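Summary for the lay section of the report: proteins are chains of building blocks that fold into shapes. Here we show the chain for Fatty acid cis/trans isomerase and then a coded description of the shape we predicted for it.
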Amino acid sequence: MKNRSIALILFLLSGCVAIGASSLDTRFGKPEPREMSSGKDASHYQSEVKPLIEARCTVCHGCYDAPCQLKMDADLGLLRGASKEKVYDGTRLFGAELTRLFTDADSTRQWREKDFYPVLNERQNTPKANLEGSVMARMLKLKQAHPLPEGEVLPESFDFSTDREQYCPTVEEFEDFAQDYPLWGMPYGLPGLPEQEQDKLLSWVRTGASFGAQPAVPAELLPHLERWEDFFNGPSLRAQLVNRYLYEHLFLASLRFENAPDVTFKLVRSSTPPGQPIKRITTRRPFDDPKVERVYYRLWHDPSSRLAKTFMPYALNHERMDKWQRWFYDADYMVSKLPGYGAEVAANPFASFAQLPIDSRYRFLLDEAEFTIMNFIKGPVCRGQIALNVIEDHFWVFFVSPNTMNPVTDGEFFERNADHLRLPAEAGNTFRPVSRWMEYASLQEGYLKAKAEYIRERADRLGRIDMQLIWDGSGHNDNSALTILRHNDSASVVRGMIGPNPKTAWLIDYPLLERIHYLLVAGFDVYGNVSHQLLSRLYMDFLRIEGEMNFVALLPETEQNAIIKSWYRGAEDDINSYLNRYLDQLPPTQVVDYQTDTPKAELLQALAQHVAPSQADSPHIAPLQWPEPLAKALGQLQSTQGVAASLMPEASVLLMPDEGVFSLMRTSAHSNVASLFSEQDRRRPQEDQLVVTAGIVPAYPNTFWRVDKGQLPQFIAQVQKLETEADYRRLKESFGIGRNHPQFWEISDQIHRDFAQQQPASAGLLDYNRLENR
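The coded shape description reads as follows.
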């Protein structure tokens, strides 16, 4: 009886859709997929319409987590339209079909075959049809007809959770959607557009929503493209292996040239050589079998808008090419045979790239260490609480110096232990995550034992280890220390040591940095099944512990156990057993002559002093430093702890007119982060703190604050007196810019302007999907 009822409902719903389609077909003709046009004048669209779409639409519709897969960060995304399938689905048993824009289909018609439906009219090109046949236009008009209700907080009928059910009506379903959810017009859960902006967008849709010709690559860049594509496609075996390595680490990069920094490129695999049109090789992962005799690495012009959550700038210049030439081509080594693409080799960089000098690989990763880490912060893996509860909310990262490496003996060590360093990507969409996890746990322990013995042998030969063990950026590279911040279900990484002394810190060496990349970037499949994603998350526990233990090894041996136990309070028995075995085999690597009874603070201070010269006057770190006139007040704000800090949002942006923008981030304390589930049971809000920086760090703000300079003492006093949710509500009423604030879009525009002015190298459109409703 139940099945019959469900079938009847589905039949009735399909009938309603059919009626809607029939009505539109009768009035405006059958839909025909629109393809990107060429040759038309695009000046009006580029100067007037696209910036408006970016500022009002793309702030919610960009990247993999765009609602209904409607990516409005690219014109082609608007033509592709929307889908009822989610990319992020932590419950699917089988890997999903790939739907990467620019990659997995070559035309709008092909996207229609993958069940994407239009949001712009695809019937007759008349003003009436263009408006009535456009989901985008009707969503805008729905918001205009039904503005948000007044009040500081929107009703519970709005769901802003990242895992919410998504309602993705086609134009044929729109009448029913509008009747059931009249308040859900676009922008969803935000104020409607000002009248002039609404008219501009609707006028564009009414006249056919033309994009015109896509912007061409500036002529002055063509010689640079030719030079770099020649570099990426040398014919020798050495060149082919080097460029395969470079590609597998740069495929997410926003590649740029200094004389046109706003034009970005992606490094892609192609079956065609330089000088011919790119014929893209599409595989699930960057190291999968290309199924061609020769792979070419090409620079593809990326027309997408710049999103703060995905923008990872990487400069291609003479200095970069000279370094790569020195590290990979001037070094004395042989490449006798190219590795295959079988999963057991391709998913393991210690096997596939064993012929490349190990110190050269490490120097390449360190040279842009922030970018290397940023790949798993801004890549597709880092979305959702389960993906991120593997790391603490705030920690600093330091690196082992590449000068400590012996290219011959270290290379031989990692080649001998390549099997120990296998990664879950080799298993693909496995259905046996537990047995696989046990296998990798055993391999990890085997590697750690071999590593400890190897380090002891080297230490006996080299004598006392000192601070030269730690990379100091070669005196000038400001990637020498990083800060990582987790904001519940998103994260950030910046250069320098931001915030007060963190609970934990990591010391990363080459094998750890490489495995993080192949676990969470190159080897992570965002379309993979639940077992693949679970296994990746579980394996990351090993890597986090390894980074922390590398740091703990620098502390006095008598203090190590107490420090690590304080980081893993209440951890499960198997974790404690693992930690104890790890501690028992930590090699002696103390680098400081400790003089106090607070060795961790002493070590952090020594490390900060060690890397300080490389970070002086850094154009990346300077914008994050407090202005001197505000330093005392902002220091007081950052000292907020306990309940008051716990009531603040995970990540918020403070706008101070005439002073710029600042970031307020809550570090949510936990007894430990060693368990996948029951995170709330491990929360310790009485230990929460705030981290305050100049500039914008989080790409997904939870709220905005507007505070005049003269109001800053009052704002700080109210923050530090927070005790209840009612107190927070009063703070929000005084200084907050909530979702339905009448000045929301005005403040949003000001924040984006200040962001671009203060941090021109990294600024992009913020994402508003995590704005709170409280």
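Put simply, here is one thing we learned. Residues 2-206 form one domain.
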